[in-house]
Amino acid sequence: MPSFKYIARSADGKRVDGTVEAADRRTALLMLQESGHTPLSLDQTAGKTAVDSIKKRFSFDSGLNKKTKMKSRDMLLFSREMADLLSSGMTLGKALHTLAQRKGDSLSAKIIRRLRDEVVQGSAFSEALRIYPESFPQLYISMVRAGEASGALAEALEGLCKHYERVHEAHSKVVTALIYPAFVLGIGLISVVGLMVFIVPRFAPIFDELGGTMPLPTRILMGFSDILIRYGWLILILLTGGIIALRRWIKTRNGRMWWHSRQLKWPVIRHIITANAFAHFARTLETLIRNGVPILKALSISEETVGNDVIAREIASARTRVTDGSSIARPLAAGKVFPELLTDMLAVGEETGDLPGSLKNIARRYDAELDFSIKVLTTVMEPILILGIAIIIGFVAISMLMAVFNLTSGLGA
User: Fold this and answer.
1) Where are the alpha helices (DSSP H) in 42-152?
2) 36: domain range?
3) pLDDT by residue (tens digit) across 341-399?
4) Phi/psi class of residue 254: alpha, beta or left (left: φ > 0; alpha: ψ in -120 to 50)?
5) Within its chain, how far is the Cα of 348 from the centroid?
6) Considering its fold, how many domains does the chain have in total?
7) In angstroms, what is the C-alpha Rg of the chain?
């Protein structure tokens, strides 16, 4: 008969755990309720081998489950549902238990069940979230801790939902803007490779039979086609290896700093990068300060979430200067990375005592700039890509026609 491991509350409110044998899950729940216990967690353990149990225990004890990551969409849904349940008056433990029971055996349910168990055992919700740093970043944990301290956890979760919704919206705008140019570039590259590999080589025997000297553009085209046919596999391997090596190097500290500094120098692209970073910085800082997180801690979290190491380094430098009691605006302005408009708006917010409101206006202003920069990118990239592909295909066509005209004129003579 299957056995079920349970965690429950006894009639006097004490935590009780153990195992119960029952024909199915429903029967096990009824048995616990008849014994006067309120089930909090019920997991089937029967049907697993001793080796499976040892593996599960080892995975749990070694902390491997800390690498389990909840998808951003699931994390946002979890936060929204938690905010709604807590706003309706439900206790934290009951809200977590409700979500864990409703979500079945999904990855999110496993994370939520672990959070529930930690809270039931007496841990603070913010401390339980630290078990899964891959799913809940420092921003999330700090906001929850501030909500717990102020007794407004539901409001803190609601603020997190709005924050991440805006972040996801900005990210989706950038991704959507790059889809069409990437599609055009991909189709163009496939067309050019197809011409070089399948079409151009068919003309080589004809030109050889007719004899004569082919024009320089045609010789260049034939040579490139021959190289692509003979060594295309090697070129593909080298390109793939180079891309993999570059990606790995970019993940290092020096490589990431180099890559992020280059992004800030490219035309059009730098406006998208900076607008997104400044909007994200202002939105994160505004959310944290509005929920009572100390300014130095808020700057530290904003530094980790801004998304560009050059800008993050400037925030870190400004944070060290803020410790001497100076404002935020002056240290940020000293680094010459943040624009004057942003620092001036920050200074106004500090003077009026409404820094969160000023940061909200900054985020709105750079969100608008991000939209404009994305429109510029799509407007500029599309004709450039089409023109580049047209030039390459035109070069192929003209090179072939020049050879044909040259040879036919020789035959006529």
Assistant:
1) 50-62, 72-87, 92-102, 107-120, 125-129, 138-150
2) 1-61
3) 888 898 888 888 888 889 889 988 988 888 888 888 778 877 888 888 888 888 888 88
4) alpha
5) 33
6) 2
7) 31
